[in-house]
Amino acid sequence: MPSRRSPSAPPADPSAAHVRSDPVYVVKAQLFRVLGHPLRIRILELLRDGERTVGDLQAELELDSSGTSQHLAALRQQSVLDSRRVGTSVYYRIRDPRISQLLAIAKEILTSALSDSHALLSDLADEARPRPRSR
Amino acid sequence: MPSRRSPSAPPADPSAAHVRSDPVYVVKAQLFRVLGHPLRIRILELLRDGERTVGDLQAELELDSSGTSQHLAALRQQSVLDSRRVGTSVYYRIRDPRISQLLAIAKEILTSALSDSHALLSDLADEARPRPRSR
DNA sequence: AGCCAATCTTATTGAGTATTAAGAATATAA
DNA sequence: TTATATTCTTAATACTCAATAAGATTGGCT
Which of B96, B61, B110, B59 lies closest to A99, judged by CA? Predict the structure, then answer.
């Protein structure tokens, strides 16, 4: 019950809640949040090259059907995935190719962040030695 | 305690845990997860046009300094933000411009998803009328 | 220097919510 | 009906968020 707060709480500036619950930001956050799970990232990478059946994904993920289904449902609920049924199998696919783009960019960001920290480590190591810096 | 299951559970294939906890997927998921909060999305949009102080952000978000600081710390911990101190103020900025790109793509995805469902609504409305489909 | 105020960070708590696994229930196709 | 695929339910655990209070750093004042 989001309308109640506590017995005698002050009005508590309602404009702050606006920022927090503004649908625009909530919807964006929900999209990112559903991507924020290792198994769901893995699912999306498996689906990057084309659609797959639930049983197929289940085997690759080494998950039970219940867990697989729940993660797929979470992604489908945010319109990240589409599904179609063929006989007894259900095929899932990425609905919008820009989702894959999102993953690719995340990978780039993390890759360069990691190489930055790697470079920093090297600099620290260099600093320990008496050799002068060339750059 | 992830090592316990139930009184007499079978060993339960340990390789499944590998997929779940593979650092590659965990790190990617953490990046998306930290973006998965409306206030943090809002912070990033405020920072898109340049750096800001904590007090500045705090005022725009209508949040207290502690809450502001905690969200900023979460983003900084995932290397999304950088900070620098000038006197008593701390300025935050987006570390990698590709983060803004991530937000822009998310916006595109959501925009087209919404216009799809809007178009679907129109189609449903048309279907209720006897007028033949022109396309 | 010594002290105070402003700014920001960190730690802690509690309430609410999400995630997980396992099993039951459901639906569909062969 | 049987097998397959998925959803629903339940319960235990874990996490997130917001709010408070305490701590640290800086600048300015006297």
Answer: B110
